[in-house]
């Protein structure tokens, strides 16, 4: 804890500028007045509190200087890199060029001469590597990574972007907790191994799943690798082969179809569940849609007017899991009842599938409708696939209805709505009549 210093009857914060910031703040020793007289606070209680606050502000100031300089340097480096590509060469720093073949350096100088660009600072910096490679602090990596992935993220809904960002923030924050907030080019293999050991200890002491640790390690590794590749940092692969062995594939259990029909879909069982959540459950049970796909339905993707009522799984303001996820699914049984009740979709859960899933899982759990801990709302989708398998549906039909990739090359239009409807009618649930 920083203690207040007395000087001329006033309490001060006194700090030596840290080595990492000395090139940005040349004061050497920083003295900031608390404006609290020693006579007014003889024990230094208020002064101690003020000194801590001033210290927080001072460190924030230093970080701001560093981040501002780093941002400016990154902009210059990116401009040079892009200009080099436009001229027709790959960007390399002057140090890399000097360490390479002299012929390559001469060739670049001749290129500038031929272009009559020796007077252009931008062209010279681009071709002869005038801008050093830039690094960033770990604490800034996620925001930088967002910028790198902005084209991909533009396709995602706000909820999808949140779910994309949060695991990356978690991975970075965990890593910083172990190794500190370091510049990415200062990271070492030892840092990566320390992080792996930290996870190993947590797995043992907190009974965590190995898959959770490997997901954290994998996310961190990808961000490091992608940043390194884009900015041509030439960093060593410190996260290579770092995954923890022993991870088990966990697959959600499927309900027995008769259990769904007689227990979950029985009249009265879901009456206390709000109408929209109940309708989403009916659609998932009868069509095999993912919960997120059902929650995203609206008036543009629910069609009830034709001979075959159906729903369309489309991006519709969100990113589909993969391209073949887009599909048209006929509505039968309770799914048709749900769509008729909510032809404009489920506004309460639009882009909020996690809220719907959590509510339904809680509801089913409180009513002892989850046979094991491995069962959940999502298990209805696994049950849907099992029901199709039980009636010997062709693999292509199953793949098309589930939104899975079919292994054979795609020819023609694929199964028609009428064909898909016939298969769905062959497995339709037949609970007692629902009241509404």
From TrEMBL:
Protein species of origin: Devosia crocina
Key words of the record: DNA recombination
Protein name, as recorded: Site-specific recombinase XerD
GO biological process, one term: DNA integration
Gene Ontology MF terms in the entry: DNA binding
Lineage: Bacteria, Pseudomonadati, Pseudomonadota, Alphaproteobacteria, Hyphomicrobiales
InterPro entries referenced in this protein's UniProt entry, alphabetically: DNA_brk_join_enz, Integrase-like_cat_sf, Integrase_catalytic
Chain ranges of the Tyr recombinase domain: 250-424
Alphabetized Pfam families for the sequence: Phage_integrase
């Amino acid at each position: 804890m920083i203690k207040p210093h007395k000087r001329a009857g006033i309490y001060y914060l006194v700090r030596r500028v840290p080595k990492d910031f000395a090139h940005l703040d040349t004061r050497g020793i920083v003295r900031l007045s608390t404006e609290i007289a020693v006579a007014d606070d003889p024990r230094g209680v208020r002064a101690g509190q003020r000194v801590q606050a001033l210290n927080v502000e001072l460190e924030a100031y230093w970080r701001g200087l560093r981040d501002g300089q780093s941002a400016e340097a990154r902009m210059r480096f990116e401009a040079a890199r892009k200009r080099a590509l436009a001229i027709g060469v790959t960007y390399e720093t002057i140090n890399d060029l000097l360490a390479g073949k002299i012929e390559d350096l001469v060739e670049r100088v001749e290129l500038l001469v031929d272009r009559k660009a020796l007077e252009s600072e931008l062209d010279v910096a681009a071709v002869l590597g005038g801008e050093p490679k830039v690094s960033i602090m770990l604490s800034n990596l996620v925001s930088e990574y967002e910028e790198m992935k902005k084209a991909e993220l533009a396709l995602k809904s706000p909820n999808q972007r949140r779910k994309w960002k949060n695991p990356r923030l978690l991975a970075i924050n965990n890593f910083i907790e172990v190794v500190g907030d370091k510049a990415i080019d200062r990271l070492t293999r030892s840092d990566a191994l320390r992080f792996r050991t930290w996870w190993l200890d947590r797995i043992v002491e907190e009974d965590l799943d190995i898959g959770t640790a490997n997901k954290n390690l994998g996310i961190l590794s990808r961000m490091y690798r992608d940043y390194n590749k884009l900015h041509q940092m030439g960093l060593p692969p410190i996260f290579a082969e770092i995954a923890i062995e022993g991870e088990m594939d966990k697959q959600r259990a499927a309900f027995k179809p008769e259990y769904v029909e007689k227990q979950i879909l029985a009249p009265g069982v879901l009456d206390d569940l709000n109408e929209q959540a109940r309708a989403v459950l009916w659609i998932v049970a009868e069509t095999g849609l993912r919960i997120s796909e059902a929650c995203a339905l609206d008036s543009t993707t629910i069609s009830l007017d034709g001979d075959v009522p159906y729903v369309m799984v489309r991006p519709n303001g969100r990113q589909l899991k993969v391209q073949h996820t887009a599909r048209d699914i006929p509505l039968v049984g309770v799914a048709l009842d749900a769509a008729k009740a909510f032809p404009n979709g489920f506004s309460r859960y639009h882009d909020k599938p996690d809220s719907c899933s959590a509510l339904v899982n809680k509801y089913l759990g409180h009513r002892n409708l989850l046979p094991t801990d491995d069962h959940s709302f999502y298990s209805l989708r696994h049950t849907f696939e099992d029901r199709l398998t039980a009636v010997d549906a062709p693999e292509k039909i199953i793949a098309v209805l589930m939104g899975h990739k079919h292994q054979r090359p795609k020819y023609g239009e694929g199964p028609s709505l009428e064909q898909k409807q016939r298969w769905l009618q062959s497995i339709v649930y037949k609970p007692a009549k629902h009241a509404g």
